[in-house]
């Protein structure tokens, strides 16, 4: 089937945090084992686990936490993995608390639960991406046909089904359709001719029609309008969807209208992802209609969808209905200032927001200031803020710094590819005060920052207890400034990103290339004196 895939050049440096290394997973098991064998208020009442039992339970808990986080990551494979890491940590803590409260093992403990989890998820996406034929499909899908199985979640991603394999799958799926709650058919027709791909989709749509699904993933299938309508029987029968994923699907204006038309109810929808499509403004109008009907929405992603100002205005208006939003990703569109200001009015209502991705939206200072002011007075638990590539200057940074100063739970800040210069960089650094103890990553690359700004940023973030990575590449920091930064990170250079694209001879429109050391020193002294006592209203 012809692909509607678009290729976007991601301009900011990306660091993958998932999956964790083998040594990291072993370290977590060791820590949990130690916690389980350490006397606590719970152990006084519930009993203390032996070392052997604690180690056995710790291994099972780590496997369960990893499985939950990995399943989340597969739904967002182009992310940096930070949300998967958070789920991994939270799930590990939750399971460990359960075991501590439970005490020494009794019947129906964690071991039984691990078996139950493995028995509910059927996943054939592992291994190499490949075509599968009828015989292989019979072998792969055999467990689904076994009587008494308890599978509620299936993932057929990464395997390309032809007509013969689809005809094998159909009768098997018909026997378990009433117990399914999650179906992942992402990337399951890759490389097939259009007519065959449509026939395969029709077979799956027909056999799964009437399933009471909570989550449906049809991403990476280059659906277009034809594909969306071929899945019409399945989509029309869904009244309880909580998550719908249509990423990289060639969702054009017509396809977006088809989605809006075919889904009968989105009242329970919590997750809606449209990343990397050719939606445009007209398609954004159709998506806005879906959003308006999704008052329970918690996670909305409409990034890299070619949406301009008019579409941005429509989405901003629709998002006002979504008071429970926790994660918003609108990156890499062409909103402009007007849509940015309109979006700020919606964001001011999002008290539960924890992650916001607003990079490459052409916001400029005016749009940035409006959004920063809105975020400052909402989203008290904000953890991730990304506003890279928006032509933000030092002028717009004051409002942004005030917003940042009010977010004590911030873990990741990305302001790369703007025009903050030293003044803006020092404003941001001063905003990251002692209250920001959870901060672990800052990206200020490609911002025309010189020696003073780079040094000040380094001095602030290196003191953070859990800090992991500072990006200041692509700036105008002198060789002496680079040496100073490296000295600040002495003993922990792994916390400092690459500096190979830094240009010590760089200049911008407002500064002369050949400033001598005396002028540099005077410039830095003036900046730091001006900003050291900066007070940010919260």
TrEMBL record:
Q: Which residues form a coiled coil?
A: none
Q: Where is this region: Disordered?
A: 493-538
Q: Which domain of life is it from?
A: Eukaryota
Query: What keyword terms does UniProt attach to this protein?
Result: Cytoplasm, Nucleus
Composition bias (Acidic residues) maps to: 500-521
Question: Which GO molecular-function terms appear in the entry?
Answer: GTPase activator activity
Subcellular location per UniProt equals: Cytoplasm; Nucleus
Q: Answer yes or no on keyword Ribosomal protein.
A: no
Q: Which InterPro entries match?
A: Leu-rich_rpt, LRR_dom_sf, RanGAP1/2, WPP_dom, WPP_sf
Indicate the segments forming the WPP domain, all copies.
14-106
**Cellular-component GO terms for this entry:** cytoplasm; nucleus
Q: What is this protein called?
A: WPP domain-containing protein
From what organism does this protein derive?
Gossypium tomentosum
